[in-house]
Amino acid sequence: MNEVGAHESKLYSDLAPLYDKIFGKIFYTRLRFVIEDLDIPHAASVLEVGVGTGTSFPAYPHHCDVTGIDLAPPMLARARAKIRKNGWNHLKVLKMDALHLEFPDNAFDYVMAFHVVSVVPDPIRMIVEAKRVCRPGGRIVIVNHFTSRFPILGHLTEALDPVTRRLGWRTNLRLEPFVRATQLTIDRVYKISKLSLYTVLVGRNEKNTYPGGSVKTQPLGLDAKENPRRF
Ligand SMILES: C[S@@+](CC[C@H](N)C(=O)[O-])C[C@H]1O[C@@H](n2cnc3c(N)ncnc32)[C@H](O)[C@@H]1O
Protein backbone atom coordinates (compact mmCIF):
# COMPACT_ATOMS: atom_id res chain seq x y z
CA MET A 1 0.00 0.00 0.00
CA ASN A 2 1.22 3.50 -0.78
CA GLU A 3 2.19 5.62 2.18
CA VAL A 4 0.15 8.77 1.79
CA GLY A 5 0.90 11.96 3.60
CA ALA A 6 -2.17 13.69 2.22
CA HIS A 7 -3.64 16.33 4.48
CA GLU A 8 -7.10 15.67 3.17
CA SER A 9 -7.72 12.77 5.52
CA LYS A 10 -6.18 14.58 8.54
CA LEU A 11 -9.28 16.70 8.99
CA TYR A 12 -11.41 13.58 8.94
CA SER A 13 -9.15 11.79 11.39
CA ASP A 14 -9.75 14.69 13.77
CA LEU A 15 -13.46 14.85 12.95
CA ALA A 16 -14.15 11.14 13.27
CA PRO A 17 -15.60 11.18 16.81
CA LEU A 18 -18.09 13.91 15.81
CA TYR A 19 -18.66 13.03 12.16
CA ASP A 20 -21.81 10.93 12.54
CA LYS A 21 -23.36 13.40 14.97
CA ILE A 22 -22.76 16.36 12.63
CA PHE A 23 -23.32 14.84 9.21
CA GLY A 24 -24.70 11.36 9.76
CA LYS A 25 -28.43 11.96 9.52
CA ILE A 26 -28.41 14.56 6.72
CA PHE A 27 -25.91 12.65 4.61
CA TYR A 28 -27.67 9.33 5.18
CA THR A 29 -31.04 10.64 3.95
CA ARG A 30 -29.41 11.68 0.69
CA LEU A 31 -27.35 8.53 0.26
CA ARG A 32 -30.27 6.23 1.01
CA PHE A 33 -32.24 7.88 -1.79
CA VAL A 34 -29.34 7.57 -4.23
CA ILE A 35 -28.53 3.94 -3.38
CA GLU A 36 -32.15 2.73 -3.33
CA ASP A 37 -32.75 4.48 -6.64
CA LEU A 38 -29.93 2.45 -8.25
CA ASP A 39 -31.76 -0.82 -7.55
CA ILE A 40 -28.45 -2.66 -7.20
CA PRO A 41 -28.89 -6.23 -8.49
CA HIS A 42 -28.15 -9.48 -6.69
CA ALA A 43 -24.43 -10.34 -6.28
CA ALA A 44 -23.25 -6.99 -7.65
CA SER A 45 -19.80 -5.90 -6.45
CA VAL A 46 -19.62 -2.34 -5.15
CA LEU A 47 -16.63 -0.17 -4.26
CA GLU A 48 -17.21 2.98 -2.19
CA VAL A 49 -14.20 5.28 -2.16
CA GLY A 50 -13.76 7.67 0.78
CA VAL A 51 -16.27 5.62 2.73
CA GLY A 52 -15.55 7.41 6.01
CA THR A 53 -17.55 6.08 8.97
CA GLY A 54 -19.87 4.17 6.63
CA THR A 55 -22.73 6.66 6.60
CA SER A 56 -24.19 4.88 3.59
CA PHE A 57 -23.96 1.33 4.96
CA PRO A 58 -27.57 0.74 6.09
CA ALA A 59 -28.77 1.67 2.59
CA TYR A 60 -26.95 -1.11 0.73
CA PRO A 61 -29.01 -4.21 0.00
CA HIS A 62 -27.62 -7.30 1.75
CA HIS A 63 -27.55 -9.18 -1.57
CA CYS A 64 -24.59 -7.15 -2.91
CA ASP A 65 -20.95 -7.19 -1.88
CA VAL A 66 -19.58 -3.81 -0.75
CA THR A 67 -15.95 -2.80 -0.18
CA GLY A 68 -15.30 0.63 1.36
CA ILE A 69 -11.89 2.29 1.30
CA ASP A 70 -10.63 5.36 3.12
CA LEU A 71 -7.36 6.89 4.26
CA ALA A 72 -8.34 7.98 7.77
CA PRO A 73 -7.96 5.16 10.32
CA PRO A 74 -10.33 6.72 12.92
CA MET A 75 -13.09 6.96 10.29
CA LEU A 76 -12.44 3.36 9.26
CA ALA A 77 -12.51 2.22 12.90
CA ARG A 78 -16.04 3.60 13.19
CA ALA A 79 -17.08 1.96 9.94
CA ARG A 80 -15.69 -1.38 11.19
CA ALA A 81 -17.51 -1.02 14.51
CA LYS A 82 -20.82 -0.53 12.63
CA ILE A 83 -20.14 -3.62 10.52
CA ARG A 84 -19.38 -5.72 13.63
CA LYS A 85 -22.33 -4.38 15.63
CA ASN A 86 -24.82 -5.06 12.85
CA GLY A 87 -23.29 -8.34 11.69
CA TRP A 88 -23.09 -7.06 8.11
CA ASN A 89 -21.33 -9.83 6.18
CA HIS A 90 -21.83 -8.08 2.86
CA LEU A 91 -19.62 -5.12 3.87
CA LYS A 92 -15.92 -4.68 4.51
CA VAL A 93 -13.51 -1.71 4.73
CA LEU A 94 -9.83 -1.29 3.91
CA LYS A 95 -7.30 1.48 4.37
CA MET A 96 -6.41 2.63 0.88
CA ASP A 97 -5.81 5.76 -1.19
CA ALA A 98 -8.59 6.52 -3.68
CA LEU A 99 -5.92 7.92 -6.01
CA HIS A 100 -3.99 4.63 -6.05
CA LEU A 101 -6.50 1.81 -5.79
CA GLU A 102 -5.01 -1.60 -5.13
CA PHE A 103 -7.61 -3.51 -7.13
CA PRO A 104 -7.27 -5.07 -10.58
CA ASP A 105 -8.93 -3.53 -13.62
CA ASN A 106 -12.69 -4.16 -14.06
CA ALA A 107 -13.09 -5.54 -10.51
CA PHE A 108 -16.40 -3.81 -9.62
CA ASP A 109 -19.88 -3.34 -11.06
CA TYR A 110 -20.37 -0.05 -9.20
CA VAL A 111 -17.95 2.58 -7.91
CA MET A 112 -19.43 5.15 -5.53
CA ALA A 113 -17.86 8.44 -4.43
CA PHE A 114 -20.04 10.21 -1.88
CA HIS A 115 -18.96 13.65 -0.60
CA VAL A 116 -15.34 12.92 -1.49
CA VAL A 117 -14.58 14.36 -4.94
CA SER A 118 -13.83 17.81 -3.50
CA VAL A 119 -11.81 16.34 -0.63
CA VAL A 120 -9.12 14.41 -2.51
CA PRO A 121 -6.15 16.43 -3.81
CA ASP A 122 -6.68 15.26 -7.40
CA PRO A 123 -10.36 14.59 -8.29
CA ILE A 124 -9.55 13.76 -11.91
CA ARG A 125 -7.02 11.13 -10.90
CA MET A 126 -9.62 9.67 -8.53
CA ILE A 127 -12.10 9.23 -11.37
CA VAL A 128 -9.43 7.75 -13.64
CA GLU A 129 -8.85 5.12 -10.94
CA ALA A 130 -12.61 4.61 -10.47
CA LYS A 131 -12.98 3.97 -14.21
CA ARG A 132 -10.07 1.57 -14.22
CA VAL A 133 -11.46 -0.66 -11.47
CA CYS A 134 -15.08 -0.44 -12.71
CA ARG A 135 -16.05 -2.96 -15.37
CA PRO A 136 -17.03 -1.70 -18.82
CA GLY A 137 -20.69 -0.70 -18.65
CA GLY A 138 -20.56 -0.53 -14.84
CA ARG A 139 -21.81 2.46 -12.89
CA ILE A 140 -19.82 5.33 -11.41
CA VAL A 141 -21.99 7.25 -8.97
CA ILE A 142 -20.91 10.58 -7.54
CA VAL A 143 -22.59 12.78 -4.94
CA ASN A 144 -20.86 16.10 -4.44
CA HIS A 145 -21.16 19.82 -4.07
CA PHE A 146 -20.24 21.70 -7.23
CA THR A 147 -19.73 25.44 -7.49
CA SER A 148 -22.95 27.23 -8.27
CA ARG A 149 -23.52 28.34 -11.86
CA PHE A 150 -25.13 31.52 -10.55
CA PRO A 151 -22.34 34.07 -11.10
CA ILE A 152 -22.39 35.86 -7.73
CA LEU A 153 -22.78 32.69 -5.66
CA GLY A 154 -20.24 30.88 -7.82
CA HIS A 155 -17.61 33.60 -7.43
CA LEU A 156 -18.27 33.85 -3.71
CA THR A 157 -17.73 30.13 -3.10
CA GLU A 158 -14.68 30.14 -5.35
CA ALA A 159 -13.26 33.02 -3.33
CA LEU A 160 -13.52 30.81 -0.25
CA ASP A 161 -11.46 28.08 -1.88
CA PRO A 162 -8.04 29.10 -0.47
CA VAL A 163 -9.54 29.00 3.04
CA THR A 164 -11.44 25.72 2.74
CA ARG A 165 -8.45 24.13 1.00
CA ARG A 166 -6.35 24.72 4.09
CA LEU A 167 -9.00 22.89 6.07
CA GLY A 168 -9.07 20.01 3.62
CA TRP A 169 -11.63 20.49 0.87
CA ARG A 170 -12.04 22.62 -2.26
CA THR A 171 -14.97 24.84 -3.20
CA ASN A 172 -13.91 25.65 -6.77
CA LEU A 173 -15.11 22.52 -8.49
CA ARG A 174 -17.46 23.26 -11.38
CA LEU A 175 -19.61 20.50 -12.79
CA GLU A 176 -19.12 20.93 -16.52
CA PRO A 177 -15.30 21.18 -16.51
CA PHE A 178 -15.18 18.25 -14.07
CA VAL A 179 -17.24 16.03 -16.39
CA ARG A 180 -15.22 17.14 -19.41
CA ALA A 181 -11.88 16.52 -17.71
CA THR A 182 -12.87 13.10 -16.40
CA GLN A 183 -14.50 12.13 -19.71
CA LEU A 184 -17.34 10.64 -17.73
CA THR A 185 -20.43 9.52 -19.58
CA ILE A 186 -23.25 10.73 -17.37
CA ASP A 187 -26.64 9.09 -17.82
CA ARG A 188 -28.39 11.10 -15.14
CA VAL A 189 -27.72 14.25 -13.19
CA TYR A 190 -30.12 15.36 -10.50
CA LYS A 191 -30.61 16.88 -7.07
CA ILE A 192 -32.62 15.23 -4.31
CA SER A 193 -34.45 18.48 -3.72
CA LYS A 194 -34.56 21.82 -5.43
CA LEU A 195 -32.57 23.56 -2.70
CA SER A 196 -30.02 20.81 -2.17
CA LEU A 197 -26.39 21.90 -2.39
CA TYR A 198 -25.42 18.47 -3.64
CA THR A 199 -25.59 17.03 -7.14
CA VAL A 200 -25.96 13.34 -7.97
CA LEU A 201 -24.18 12.08 -11.09
CA VAL A 202 -24.93 8.58 -12.33
CA GLY A 203 -22.28 7.66 -14.87
CA ARG A 204 -21.75 4.63 -17.06
CA ASN A 205 -18.24 3.35 -17.45
CA GLU A 206 -17.19 3.52 -21.06
CA LYS A 207 -13.50 2.78 -21.06
CA ASN A 208 -12.94 4.69 -24.27
CA THR A 209 -15.51 7.37 -23.82
CA TYR A 210 -16.18 10.27 -26.13
CA PRO A 211 -13.64 13.06 -25.84
CA GLY A 212 -15.01 15.58 -23.43
CA GLY A 213 -17.50 13.27 -21.70
CA SER A 214 -21.23 13.45 -22.26
CA VAL A 215 -24.63 13.51 -20.64
CA LYS A 216 -27.13 11.14 -22.23
CA THR A 217 -30.40 11.79 -20.44
CA GLN A 218 -31.43 13.81 -17.45
CA PRO A 219 -34.81 12.49 -16.34
CA LEU A 220 -34.81 13.82 -12.79
CA GLY A 221 -32.71 16.95 -13.07
CA LEU A 222 -34.46 20.07 -11.86
CA ASP A 223 -31.80 22.09 -13.62
CA ALA A 224 -31.89 19.70 -16.50
CA LYS A 225 -35.54 20.32 -17.24
CA GLU A 226 -35.05 24.05 -17.32
CA ASN A 227 -31.69 24.05 -18.97
CA PRO A 228 -30.65 20.79 -20.67
CA ARG A 229 -26.91 20.59 -20.60
CA ARG A 230 -24.43 18.92 -22.91
CA PHE A 231 -20.89 18.56 -21.72
C1 LIG B 1 -16.63 14.18 3.70
S1 LIG B 1 -16.02 12.60 4.12
C2 LIG B 1 -17.26 11.60 3.31
C3 LIG B 1 -17.40 10.26 3.99
C4 LIG B 1 -18.57 9.41 3.44
N1 LIG B 1 -18.38 9.14 2.03
C5 LIG B 1 -19.87 10.09 3.71
O1 LIG B 1 -20.56 10.45 2.73
O2 LIG B 1 -20.23 10.27 4.87
C6 LIG B 1 -14.62 12.43 3.03
C7 LIG B 1 -13.83 11.14 3.30
O3 LIG B 1 -12.85 10.99 2.27
C8 LIG B 1 -11.68 10.44 2.86
N2 LIG B 1 -10.54 10.69 1.98
C9 LIG B 1 -9.92 11.86 1.74
N3 LIG B 1 -8.92 11.69 0.87
C10 LIG B 1 -8.91 10.38 0.55
C11 LIG B 1 -8.11 9.57 -0.32
N4 LIG B 1 -7.10 10.12 -1.04
N5 LIG B 1 -8.36 8.26 -0.40
C12 LIG B 1 -9.37 7.71 0.33
N6 LIG B 1 -10.17 8.40 1.16
C13 LIG B 1 -9.94 9.73 1.26
C14 LIG B 1 -11.61 11.15 4.20
O4 LIG B 1 -10.76 10.47 5.10
C15 LIG B 1 -13.09 11.15 4.63
O5 LIG B 1 -13.41 10.00 5.36
> How large a portion of the residues is in β-strands, by DSSP E?
15-25%
Total number of beta strands: 8
Overall shape: globular
- How much is the radius of gyration in Å? 17 Å
Low-confidence stretches: 1-7, 214-231
Key traits:
binds S-adenosylmethionine, 22% strand, 231 residues, eight-stranded mixed β-sheet, Rossmann fold, alpha/beta
What does this 3D model show about the protein?
With 231 residues, the protein is of the alpha/beta class. 36% of the residues lie in helices and 22% in strands. Strands 3-2-1-4-5-7-6-8 form an 8-stranded mixed sheet. A hairpin with a 7-residue loop joins strand 6 and strand 7. The model is unreliable at 1-7 and 214-231 (pLDDT under 50). It binds S-adenosylmethionine. S-adenosylmethionine is lined by residues 6, 8-9, 12, 23, 27, 49-52, 55, 69-72, 75, 97-99, 114-116, 119-120.
